[in-house]
Design a protein that fits this description.
Blueprint: H1 6-37, H2 41-67, H3 73-96, H4 104-125, H5 140-164, H6 166-169
């Protein structure tokens, strides 16, 4: 029975890896927006680095989903490890700075990057799986359930990070979409309501 789950488990893990990578890309892009909106050389360098990382995560995940395989398997673990280390360094620097608190966006980016790293590591150790449903194909119902579960887990980590970013703080509140702005208040910049 356990041998029958391998194709489904591999396909579900692959979805999980790429969902996590997409979320990491989106959180990195939101971090980039915050850094690039700041002044100074440090935030500019951080913004460009986060922009490049976000675009790389998104491109890698979309290409991998299209190919239905772990692309760049030899490079992915060091790259994901480096991205996680950078987020840890930024979080550690934030804890040491008396004026900064723990950055939720970097913590979320670290979480989804570690998810992608763990899944990619498992896929590297189990590159070939045999057995499974009809002709060794993943079982559709189980794969759909796994995809839903992966999306929920990844979203539960990424959503607070996106909401805590500069872009999330300036988003239009959900109940106010399509309403005419109040005189003197720019939509989405109401200081009394944040996500």
């Amino acid at each position: 029975m356990a041998g029958q789950d391998h194709p489904t488990l591999k396909a579900a893990t692959l979805l999980f890896v790429y969902f996590a990578a997409m979320a990491a890309g989106m959180v990195d892009l939101s971090l980039s927006a915050g850094y690039l909106a700041s002044s100074g050389a440090g935030p500019l360098i951080g913004g460009v680095a986060a922009l490049m990382a976000g675009l790389a995560f998104l491109a890698w995940s979309l290409w991998g989903l299209h190919r239905n395989s772990l692309v760049f398997p030899r490079l992915v673990l060091p790259a994901l490890g480096a991205a996680a280390a950078i987020h840890v360094a930024v979080l550690a620097a934030g804890l040491l700075a008396p004026s900064r608190s723990l950055d939720i966006s970097h913590l979320a980016a670290l979480g989804v990057t570690l998810m992608a790293l763990a899944g990619a590591g498992w896929l590297r150790r189990h590159p070939k799986t045999n057995g499974g449903g009809t002709h060794g194909q993943p079982r559709t119902g189980r794969l759909l359930a796994a995809a839903f579960g992966a999306a929920v887990v990844v979203a539960s980590v990424a959503t607070p990070g996106l909401a805590a970013s500069m872009a999330g703080q300036h988003a239009v509140p959900h109940g106010e979409h399509g309403q005419a702005p109040t005189k003197g208040v720019t939509p989405g910049l109401n200081p009394g309501h944040h996500h």
